[in-house]
Amino acid sequence: MIILKQFDESDYTAFIEWQKDATEKDLFLFAGRTFTPPVTKEQLVAYEAEVNRKTLPVKLFTVIQKDTGEKIGHIQMSDIDAVNKSAFLNRVYIREESRGKGYGKALIETMKRYVFSDLGLHRLSLYVLSNNLEAKQMYEQVGFKEEGVMRDARLFQGDYLSLHLMSVLASEVAS
What we know:
With 175 residues, this protein is an alpha+beta fold. It has five helices and seven strands. It comes from Halolactibacillus halophilus.
């Protein structure tokens, strides 16, 4: 259904197009304060530069619809920790016109296989904002379990939002 390719400058145009009508709230749900509307090439260059400065490795991927070859999304895997055999998923995004078709679930399942089978890690985690109920429900459907809540951890436009920590372990995934 999907394939992943390493995110690079050739993906900037698609990324910017996906976000052309994005509001500040849309971008905050997807990427915190990483981007501001309108998303520009300069913001994407800064995003990649920031990723390259991290202590623990980070990988950026573009999501491609397998049958058509169209670029339909983006995902970041961060804090890839070989010692503790863990990683985090961040910035999970499927473009609007591709939502509701199973691509989000396919993306997370692909990432689980990559993390557990290819990289041999033990734990995959993510945070989801309390107002992103659709995403939280999808993560639960693909096996993530809520571990806790960081209450009022993010301030956005005068409102505090909580962060739900969720994870899945290699032992919980069918081979």
